[in-house]
Amino acid sequence: MEKRQCFELGYLSKVHGLDGALTAVLDTDQPERYAELDALFLEQGTQLVPFLVKKVSGRKGKQLILHLEGIDSQEKANQLKGSKIWLPEQALPKLGKNQFYYHELVGAEVEDARHGKLGRISEVLDLPQQTLASMNWQGSEILFPLNDAFIRGFDREASVLLTKLPEGLIEVYLNPETEESHAH
């Protein structure tokens, strides 16, 4: 399985108990969806290595206690601690027409109601206050919030994010006013 066919779900934060169980921290708003995991991939160096899940024994917030097949001691579990957890994209629940996962937006074209086609999203920045999309347009990096007020829809087939960005947002990036320009 290649990384481009997968998404990063979280990581193994610490060993739990003496029988090789590990605490997984999930990067999701709905960790309960993953309480029935039967298999996952762990990033080992540059490889994604498959592991079978014997059982999930507890959930607290965004954490699950995982018991992996063949990992039956604290020593074996310690070797996996810190590993990133990956799942195949097919494991994601299907979303409605205008819903999307952030990883789907990378490379998507942005088409704005006011400005037309703007460019492709280069990355999604999941900050504590809000989630931002980053794209290049006319040689400038432009950041805009990924929130319902500015998103008109997502065309998954064409990989196009339809936006209605606030008036003046793009101009701020294209016409940076500096104090020097007012000094002359």
Gyration radius (Cα, Å) is 21 Å
- What is the ordering of alpha helices and beta strands? EEEEEHEHEEEEEEHH
Major pleated sheet: 6 strands, antiparallel, barrel
Query: Mean pLDDT, rounded to whole units?
Result: 86
Oligomer: single chain
Q: Beta-sheet strand percentage?
A: over 45%
Total beta strand runs: 12
Q: What overall form do the CA principal axes indicate?
A: elongated
Query: For the largest beta sheet, what order do the strands appear in spatially?
Result: 1-2-5-4-3-6
Question: How many structural domains can be distinguished in the coordinates?
Answer: 2
Would you write up a description of this structure?
This protein has 184 residues and is mainly beta. The protein has 2 domains: 3-91, Beta Barrel (Elongation Factor Tu (Ef-tu), domain 3), CATH 2.40.30; 102-174, SH3 type barrels. The chain has 4 helices and 12 strands; from the N terminus they run βββββαβαββββββαα. The chain has helices at residues 74-80, 102-105, 169-174, 179-182; strands at 6-16, 21-26, 39-44, 47-60, 63-68, 84-88, 109-112, 116-126, 131-137, 140-145, 151-155, 160-163. Strands 1-2-5-4-3-6 form a 6-stranded antiparallel barrel. Strands 10-9-8-7-12-11 form a 6-stranded mixed β-sheet. The termini are far apart.
